[in-house]
Amino acid sequence: MLGSSPATVASVALGFVVLTVSGDYLAQFVGDYADHVLLGCLGLGLAGWLLFESGISLAASSFAALGTWLLVDGVQHLRHEIGRESIPHQYSHDGGVVTGLVRALGRRLLRPFRL
């Protein structure tokens, strides 16, 4: 945000606060992973806008993949009523630094598809 006008910085900050507060309210009233559903929908909307504006690009593909995963993760956890505190095990890395972190990341990324 260096070199941007104060109005741009203020609007980005306000947007971040609104997104954070709305995610907290959704999590409070709907369920623990409702913020993932909100972020997933926003990511897919941003990917659609990028596809409309500039065609297929790495940014659009990245937002589509991230938005899809967040949406699936949030819906699956809400469907099965699993909150963040009731996850059966913490994602720790077993083994070396590289292989253990890859295993823990893989477990977390595949969790919504295993519910």
| Estimated structural class | mainly alpha
Distance between the termini: 40 Å
Instruction: Report low-confidence residues grouped into runs of 5 or more.
Output: none
In what range is the share of β-strand residues? under 5%
The biggest sheet, with number of strands, parallel, antiparallel or mixed sense and barrel status, is: none
* Average pLDDT over all residues: 85
What is the β-strand count?
A: 0
CA radius of gyration is 17 Å
Write down the overall geometry: globular
The SSE string, one letter per element, is HHHH
The residue fraction in helices comes out at over 70%
How many helices does DSSP assign?
4
Task: Report on the architecture of this protein.
By secondary structure, this protein is an all-alpha fold. The protein is 74% helix and 0% strand. It is built from four helices and no strands. The chain has helices at 6-29, 34-54, 58-79, 97-114. α2 (34-54) runs antiparallel to α3 (58-79) and α3 crosses α4 (97-114). The radius of gyration is 17 Å and the shape is globular. The protein starts with 5 loop residues before the first helix and ends with a helix. The model has no long low-confidence stretch (mean pLDDT 85).
